[in-house]
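Comment on this:
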Amino acid sequence: MTSSRGRGLLHLAAAIDQPSVHEAAPYVEAARLAERGGLDFVTLDDSFGRAGPVALAVMSRVAPVTGRIGLVPTVTTTHTEPFHVQAAVATLDWVSRGRAGWRIDVSATEGEARLFGRRRAAPAEELWQEAGEVADVAARLWDSWEDDAEIRDVCTGRFIDRDKLHHVDFQGTYFSVRGPSIVPRPPQGHPVRVVDVTDPAARGTAARYADVALIRASSAAQVAAVRRQLRAEAQGFGRDPDALRVLAGLVVDLGDGEHAAEPGHGGGGPRHSARGPLYRGGPVDLAELIAGWHGDGVVDGFHLIPAESPRDLERLVNGTVALLQHRGLFRTFYPGSTLREHLGLTRPANRYAAAGERPEP
């Protein structure tokens, strides 16, 4: 359903981070809870400097026991091999039957660089340029298999039509990749690419490559300004700006029950905290904030980060989301089966099949 003011579909996502949890079961339960609320996707953060399970591995465990919700782990493009990164994300898309995304992130600290010992830490602008190249080559490698490249003919013993595999022959500033991939083209064509653009250094990469941009800002005016900037830059790169979803990131503390939001946290907008923009109040006022910002065209939706999980996730789903559904502002069921369908994004055409290219003999 659309909002009452004629805007596009409202998109909602939630973080399922639980810093002290190292086993899979609590993440599975959190994802299932978010799925019962019809959320577009859940995210799980990760970094080389953080103790705990690998987000991509956790989401691979969550995938078989969920059916509709999108799964978006953080995957760092610094100090990693682009070929292996894209193969891992493509595999998650296969395991989840088309529900994978990846939050592209960079590693800027000297401590993380020392874990690998291959190079020193670099400025954010350089790291995000490299991340853009990773996003670019990942899409090319996903296209290196045409959708019908697999033959699987037992009688002839032919598994692949070699004419439908393509070398990408990518030569960038930071690395080169010949291809093709070792994983068939993912169900979504390209798993959804998510970038947090709170750091301005990330915005060029997001405008050029991201399907979803996350922005943490404490006022509707700030969020709206970043959204306008991203859409303009996306159009400058030859993209349809309507194909870029911009979600406001908000930490939500619903622990004090049903009451009016504290000054500075409710309808007037969240306020700054060490974890980012913070809403502290009841589920009803949070629903009003979400409906207001979306209805005014400030954002396409929200990425909500429970201050205390699973407590706040449960109150978010059973309180705020249920109210938005009751008011007809958020869907009550998944109309499709893939994350791209949840977000209203088309499945990309294969660039090599469309161009009719064939590998050299």
Observations:
- The two ends are 51 Å apart (CA to CA).
- The first strand starts at residue 11 and ends at 15.
- The first helix runs from residue 25 to 36.
- Residues 1-6, 264-268 have pLDDT under 50 and may be disordered.
